[in-house]
Amino acid sequence: MRLSCADEMLLLNGCPGVVGLAAVFSGEQPDVGRVRARVAERWTGLERMSCVLDRPPGKGGTARWVVPGPFDPAAHVAVARNKLDDLWAQSVDRPLLDGVPPWRLFVVPDAAHGGGFALALVAQHVLLDGRSLATVMRSLMDGPAAVRDSVRPAPLPRTGLRAAARELRVMTAAGQALPMRSAQETYSSVAVTELPAHMVRAARRQPADGRGATLNELLVAAVAGALRARYGPMRRWRQRDEPAYTAVPCDLRTRVNPGELGNTLTVVRVPLPVDVDGPVARLRACQAAMAAVPDRAAVHATVLFPAAEAVRRTGPWVTLLLTNRGRRSCFAATATTAMKWPGGSSTFQDRPLVRTVGLPPLQHPGTVSFALAQAGDAYTLTVVCNLRPDDARRIADAVVTEFETWARMVTPSVRAKP
Q1: What does the buried/exposed string (b/e) look like for 312-324 if buried means 16 or more CB atoms within 10 Å of the residue's CB?
Q2: CA 238 to CA 175: how far, in whole Å?
Q3: What percent of the chain clears pLDDT 70, i.e. is strictly above it?
Q4: Across-strand partners of 375?
């Protein structure tokens, strides 16, 4: 099977490309044999989970997916030796080996984060995107194997060539990289932080005179504030007049393919209002920028991706051209995604789900990736840095500070006085 354009760009982007999603449960750790049995029952019929990446030797040729047979649950499901946070830190910069389906499921005995154990799925991004991770993990839960979303995305609107030209200009514009001394002096670091539900609910009521904020809008605005707190206003560290951008992944599935596995997504580049004073003002700026994201993603799906698919059949140089643009940290200084657990409450072998914890990919030197996972009233932030040692913890704390600031603000009534 030929790799999709999104698959191929992820394969060639020069990053480790490891992503993950952990489901934390209360109760006693299950026997690994029973976990393997559930995995075999629910995942053997999913062709994507048995795909092996076939890379031709040398620089010539094109990689493709092959399915030599069903995966081996005994080889793919194991008990982790460390806590969940340690597993994430050890996995983020270590690509999985070729020759077998590039995913592993770990039973984590000491998960922490309010649970007794966790099931942690680690995969190469070229195999699964964030929505796919949630889909396959949800299928392991008690009850029917199929996942049915209560709300499915509407069909993508049609777009024209003018919209495509505008989007190309935005996606190819120069951006600002985070200040750092040298790409050779960067290190990977991972930090996981729990956000109290009451704090997030209070933050979502900002701005007080507006409609409130979505989780994605809050995350992007909090990242802008965290970068300002960590590095100061951009006017102090910018190398050019352009803004710093964040890459916002957008799911392109519609109501006809809500459970499709793979990489059915695009990335939209959104400016971070680092130089805007005040957390509420930054949030307003992010809401204005994020409002255009669905239409911009539709341009990718209906014009840019089909054009890229048609042109890249002439040779691999097309994908390399598209991918090389994203190799530089000035393309996107950060990547931000909000992940919601599909469906309602869940159990695994009668153990209740406590929370989910994402693992965003490690990007190029000088970048930060953020994943804010929601499962019911549990919110968990994971920050992955390719900066200085322990920067992930410092930046995660700065993001939480932004949420705390919004939550502390008194929310006045928006009703007009008689």
Answers
A1: beeeeebbeebbe
A2: 10
A3: 88
A4: 378
